[in-house]
Design brief:
The protein has 14 helices and no strands. With about 290 residues, the chain is mainly α. Helices cover about 70% and strands about 0% of the residues. The protein has one domain (about 5-285): Triphosphoribosyl-dephospho-CoA protein (Orthogonal Bundle). Helix 4 (about 80-95) packs across helix 5 (about 105-110), helix 4 runs parallel beside helix 14 (about 265-285) and helix 9 (about 170-190) packs across helix 14 (about 265-285).
Length: about 290
């Protein structure tokens, strides 16, 4: 691995760890396991997926497939498919961007130049991960060979999957929403884990979670939106974020009792934190 590859690997694992340190109600964190997965599963997944994800000789599709394969071999379940799908293009952008190009511009180039071969690797990765309700489709089913490039395949999935939507929108949820939430929270509290909580809660208060909606449709969407809006309201005026822990525990228990796991927003939270770190790398190199 090159020095940049190693730096990307370290920051990727740090972003995954910060997300685990964040109390994300309904999801797995150091505060509470859930959905037959543990914090240890996610830590192992981050470690074993980092090397293939950050291997500069791999194509985008190969990064995704080999990271998913390593995870599956290590923990035997789908802990991080969404994280890998979001972080791989960001890593690819960092490894191939010109010095005077922004991360967002480099990411656009990556997403505009995906190949049919990338799609084939990702279809294999999704089939291997076996995520609930994802991959089966009338067009470009992952059990078949793709006839489009990866971004075109994501277009077809984008109406029902918010991670696929990022490929279509050039990660708009992160660059136009998540980053501002994170930076504001860090300025307010100087705590990365609570900034990650703020990102997660803000996303859930604004957008339906596609992981939940694939299982339950919109049955629980308004209920989750109301809970997160109330939580966000409390976070907006308190001086110490730990004051909301009782409410976080209550919401966490409510969601998990109903089998509701906002996994998509957790994945977007990791990618947001990772993007912050990547922006820091670029800033240091330009200064």
């Amino acid at each position: 691995m090159t020095p940049l590859d190693e730096q990307l690997s370290d920051f990727y694992q740090q972003a995954c760890e910060i997300e685990l340190q964040a109390f994300k109600p309904g999801n797995v964190s150091v505060y509470a396991d859930g959905h037959d997965m543990t914090v240890a599963d996610f830590r192992i997944s981050a470690k074993v997926s980092a090397e293939p994800l950050c291997h500069s000789a791999y194509s985008l599709g190969e990064k995704i497939y080999y990271a998913v394969k390593a995870t599956r071999a290590a923990v035997g379940c789908n802990t991080n498919l969404g994280i890998i799908l979001l972080c791989a293009p960001l890593i690819q952008a960092m490894q191939h961007k010109a010095p005077d190009v922004s991360l967002r511009q480099a990411l656009r180039v990556v997403l505009d130049t995906t190949t049919q071969e990338d799609a084939a690797w990702v279809f294999k990765a999704i089939s291997l991960a076996s995520p609930g309700g994802l991959g089966s489709a009338d067009q470009q089913d992952v059990s078949e060979q793709p006839t489009v490039n990866l971004t075109e395949a994501m277009v077809l999935a984008s109406s029902k999957d918010r991670i696929a939507l990022q490929y279509v929108s050039y990660f708009q949820d992160i660059f136009d929403f998540g980053l501002a939430i994170y930076y504001n929270a860090v300025r307010k509290w100087a705590k990365q884990d609570w900034a990650a909580v703020s990102v997660y809660v803000s996303l859930l208060s604004r957008f339906p979670d596609s992981h939940i909606e694939r299982k339950y449709g919109s049955e629980h969407t308004s209920e989750i939106t109301v809970m997160m809006a109330a939580l966000l309201d409390q976070l907006s005026y308190i001086a110490m974020p730990e004051q909301v822990l009782p409410l976080l525990y209550s919401i966490d228990q409510t969601l998990k009792a109903k089998g509701l796991n906002p996994g998509t927003m957790a994945d977007l939270t990791v990618a947001t934190v990772f993007t912050v770190f990547l922006e820091d790398i670029i800033q240091l190199k330009s200064s």
